[in-house]
Amino acid sequence: MARDDDKRNFALRQADGSESSVFSGRTPRQAALKAARRLEPAPSEADANKTEIRLREKGTKKVHIYDGWAWKEQAPSDKPDWMPGEITEANVSKRGIEHLDEI
Fold first, then answer.
1. Which residues contact 93 (CB under 8 A, 6 or more apart)?
2. What ranges do the domains of the chain cover?
3. For residue 103, what pLDDT is reported?
4. Rounded distance, CA 24 to CA 16, Å?
5. ∠41-24-82 over CA atoms, to 5°?
6. How far is 89 from 31, CA to CA, in rounded Å?
7. For residue 5, what pLDDT is reported?
8. pLDDT at 2 over 60
9. 71: how many CB neighbours lie within 10 A of its CB?
10. How far, in Å, CA of 37 to CA of 21, rounded?
11. CB 68 within 8 A of CB 32
C-alpha cells in the first residue's frame, strides 16, 4: 500500500486564476488523469475534444499544463456487480510547465 506522504496535491486552475478542485497523486500526470475523468465524455475516443487542464502543484509556483479528453466505453466482461455497464475513460498529453510569479 502506498504511503500518504508519497502523494502530492495539485489544484485545478481556471482561466481566471481561481482554483476550484484539488487532485492528489504521486505524479502530476496521475492527478491530471483524475481531472480528465471529470470532463464531459464523448461517445468514443475518436470523437473526444481536447481540453486544457492546468494543475498547480501545492506549495510551489509550478503549473503543469495538459491536454485532456474523456470518452465512454463498455465495461469489461469480468466487471464486478456494482460497476455500471458503461464507464468513463480518459487520457492526457503534457504540453509543458509554467512558473507563476505569485501564488
1. 50, 66, 67, 68
2. 4-99
3. 60
4. 22
5. 50
6. 14
7. 72
8. no
9. 18
10. 13
11. yes
Backbone angles phi, psi at 26, to 5 degrees: -75, -30
Identify whether the C-beta of residue 65 lies closer than 8 Å to the C-beta of residue 53: yes
100 neighbors 63 (Cβ within 8 angstroms): yes
Supply the mean pLDDT for the chain: 93
- Residue bearing cell 480528465: 36
- Contact predicate 50/68, CB 8 Å: yes
How many Å separate Cα 93 from the centre of its chain? 10
State pLDDT tens for residues 35-82: 999 999 999 999 999 999 999 999 999 999 999 999 999 999 999 999
Name beta bridge partners: 13.
19, 54
Tell me if the pTM is above 0.90.
no
